[in-house]
Amino acid sequence: MKKRALLVGALFLCLLFPFSTSVFAYSQIVAFGDSLSDNGPEDGDGFGRFTDPGGLVWVDYLAQDLGVGLLDMAYGAARTYGNPYSPFSTTDPLYVDSMFGFNWQVDKYLTMTNNIADPNNLYTVWIGGNDLLNLDGNRPGKVIVNAAINIGSAIGALYDAGATDIVLMNMPNLGATPLMNGTIYDTPEYGESLSQGFNCSLAITQAIMEWYLPDLNLFSVDIFALMDEFITSGDLYFDNVTTMLKYDSDTEGQRYLFWDEIHPTTYAHELIADAVYSQVAPVPEPSTIVLMGLGLVGLAGLGRKKFRK
User: Of 30, 33, 43, 163, whose Cβ has the fewest other Cβ atoms within 10 Å?
Assistant: First the structure.
């Protein structure tokens, strides 16, 4: 009887073990980027969440889905190389311009960790929109190429410090946002061409990194395609995909895609997190699947024994 009880207990452990989140989950999410990922001053960094009041952004939801902590290094208005809206006053404009950009965020993180990027963490990168929206008189092509180079450089620094799993988000269709879809400015074709040019350059950068860094796991998330799906799917996802929840008067019961001119609602952020989760969710290793199978076979054998008596 004791042997039977021990066997049953062992079989149940075999069944339960593969589903233990602590075994397969990442240790932590470390998020880099701009206002699309900035979750506010709760972590001591950032400028605030750029979505519905009290709402979460996608990295918040992703951390909940994976059951891990979140270190959010993203800053609103950040570019790939800097942030011209730094609140720190200085007489050196170049110093201001270098603050809070992607490279600065990575440098700050590596300073905090003694230049070690834990390979058990999941790192997320979503940046570039402010480069495109603030050309500062530069040609779009030059800005796009420089942004892709900056992103590749910063990801390379993370990789050199030990990072292995990195989520890389591309640019949504800026031409479909209220800023450019005719709600504020009627420049949808221009916005779309900026996004497509950026995404093409980013894809080339990604291909180069994957060629030279074969052990780097880059999870590429096509936000451009996801946004297109949101907009073209009727009311499957949203009731309003053109105007802004923040400024519309009668919004009760309606699902909006956009919170303001450029930022998604918290509901949209949740759907974005779902899309990312579907790519990065850890799966049981083959050995643990075998354990589960053995557990099922063993329980089935116990059942047959019972009915033979």
Answer: 43
> What architecture is the 26-281 domain classified under in CATH?
3-Layer(aba) Sandwich (3.40)
Q: For residues 208 and 124, give the distance between their C-alpha atoms in angstroms, rounded to a whole number.
A: 19
**Exposure class string for 250-282: b at 16+ Cβ within 10 A, else e:** eeeeebbbbbbbbbbbbbbbbbbbebbeeebee
* Contact (CB, 8 A) for 225 and 171: no
Contact 122, 167 (CB under 8 A): yes
Strand, helix or coil at 61?
helix
66 conformational bin, left if phi > 0, alpha if psi -120 to 50, beta if neither: alpha
Pairing of strands 122-126, 217-221: unpaired
What pLDDT is attached to residue 308? Answer: 46
Which tokens is 84 given?
Answer: 């011209």
Here the tokens at position 224 are 């451009």
According to the model, what pLDDT value does residue 288 have? 43
- Residue 46 confidence (pLDDT): 65
In the chain, beta strands by DSSP E: 28-33, 69-72, 122-126, 165-169, 217-221, 240-244, 256-258
Q: Give the three-class secondary structure for 223.
A: helix
Reading the block at residue 153, the tokens are 């450089």
Tell me if residue 140 falls in helix, strand or coil.
Answer: helix
Q: Where are the domains of the chain?
A: 26-281
pTM: 0.82
Tell me how far apart the alpha carbons of residues 82 and 97 are, in angstroms, rounded to a whole number: 5
Q: Which residue has the tokens 């300073």?
A: 111
Give the Cβ contact number of residue 137 at 10 Å. Answer: 4
Phi-psi region of 114 (alpha: psi -120 to 50; beta: other; left: phi over 0): left
Number of CB atoms found within 10 A of residue 210's CB: 13
Low-confidence ranges of the chain (pLDDT < 70): 1-24, 42-46, 82-98, 283-309
How remote is the C-alpha of 72 from its chain's centroid?
Answer: 11
